[in-house]
Amino acid sequence: MPNIVIVGAQWGDEGKGKIVDIYTEYADDVIRFQGGNNAGHTLVVGEEKTILHLIPSGILHPGKRCVIGNGVVLDPRVFIKEIDGLKAKGYLHDDSQLVIDGNVHIIMPWHTAIDLAREEARGDRKIGTTGRGIGPAYEDKVGRRGIRLNDLVRPDVFARKVDEVLPEKNFLLEKFFGKAPLDRQAIIDEYGKYAEILGRYQGCASTLLDREIRAGRNLLFEGAQGALLDIDHGTYPFVTSSSTVAGGACIGTGIGPRHIDQVIGISKAYVTRVGSGPFPTELEDETGDALRKAGQEFGSTTGRPRRCGWFDAVALREAVRTSGLTGLAITKLDVLNAMETIKICTGYSWQGELLEDFPRDFEILRECKPVYEQMDGWCSDISSARSLDELPAAARAYLDRLAEVTGCPLVLVSVGPRRDQTIQISNPFA
């Protein structure tokens, strides 16, 4: 049976939550494989909106198992708040529906404190981090001083690890950043309570998913952020701290790449970006403001206004290559309803040279100017369309051109925030 990876094909915020929610109907297990609560997936079921930061979007479907893989960094406070919120809305009746891999790294108070202190110290050179402690948690993971769920649920091991790490963190906070130190006993007491709750969901993603694959079950892997924020393949240093490309699904869950059948990239019909970093097609004018207003482009995690711009085929082709996309889902096509003309960036101009490939050198990328082609808008409401034939000719022409310039076939088009406001062209699970 097919196993599908969903990744963002831009700088995150592409509407992955809705697409994962739709594909969950065909999946048996939904697995989050990287990132932390710096991600926010917004789901609209009927008139009810649910925002998830850690728990896979498939949790709104009864009978579907959701797994948080080892590649995630988890803030217990945020996780428990999500659990309480879901249960209050009538979801997650059965705790066995949710599994957290025991090797998940735990975001500790010093991670958020250092994250915020660093960003404050950068002044005008801010990276744009959400301040949730994600980066520092991944630093400790790579530095082999992180605390995992397997450690947290063992009080003696957890206390020992806190004692090993906290003096160094407090030295950094006090002596370098001039911040107050953290209290050792307060951390032990607080996180001891979290351990009791998280322990209910503890498991091993790798062995669980291997059994599911052998049983012929359908797996849906859910990524956070977007391909252009990948720690290795994104616009470094303005990136997140994990592997957001499709290969991260294997690393972050413990399954081999031969088990991945298709990779679906999610892309808006235009582009947005939160935080700092190069953005060749950014519109710092009335058109950008109109896109932001029509698309309600404010971060679901931070509330920050998103930077908006025209569709960038050069950047999208980078995501097609680095994640091996087999299909593309276009979201928020309806946001362009009022546009009389629409532009697509098909190349970059740099020092008189036409670039068709995405520059890996940040210094080159920030000097690139977009080369546009212009298309007619459709100036009509498309939110009721449920097939390509029901779209205006100009909207169909725009979609055809997106597939052509990205070199990736379209599998789905979203024309509104609700589940039913979707055109499924082909189903990767079929």
TrEMBL record:
One of its GO terms (molecular function) is GTP binding. Substrate binds at S300, T301, T302, G303, R304, P305, R306. PROSITE patterns: ADENYLOSUCCIN_SYN_1 (PS01266), ADENYLOSUCCIN_SYN_2 (PS00513). The active site is at D13 (proton acceptor), H41 (proton donor), K141. IMP binds at D13, E14, G15, K16, N38, A39, G40, H41, T130, R144, Q225, T240, R304. Transmembrane segments: none annotated. It is an enzyme of class 6 (ligase). GO terms for cellular component: cytoplasm. Its EC number is 6.3.4.4. Keywords: Cytoplasm, GTP-binding, Ligase, Magnesium, Metal-binding, Nucleotide-binding, Purine biosynthesis. One of its GO terms (biological process) is 'de novo' AMP biosynthetic process. Binds 1 Mg(2+) ion per subunit. Pfam families: Adenylsucc_synt. Its cofactor is Mg(2+). CDD domains: AdSS. GTP binds at residues 12-18, 40-42, 306, 332-334, 414-416. It catalyses: IMP + L-aspartate + GTP = N(6)-(1,2-dicarboxyethyl)-AMP + GDP + phosphate + 2 H(+). Mg(2+) binds at D13, G40. Pathway: Purine metabolism; AMP biosynthesis via de novo pathway; AMP from IMP: step 1/2. Gene3D superfamilies: Adenylosuccinate Synthetase, subunit A, domain 1, Adenylosuccinate Synthetase, subunit A, domain 2, Adenylosuccinate Synthetase, subunit A, domain 3. It is found in: Cytoplasm. Belongs to the adenylosuccinate synthetase family. Plays an important role in the de novo pathway of purine nucleotide biosynthesis. Catalyzes the first committed step in the biosynthesis of AMP from IMP. Homodimer. NCBIfam families: PRK01117.1 (NF002223), purA (TIGR00184). This is Adenylosuccinate synthetase. It comes from Geothermobacter ehrlichii.
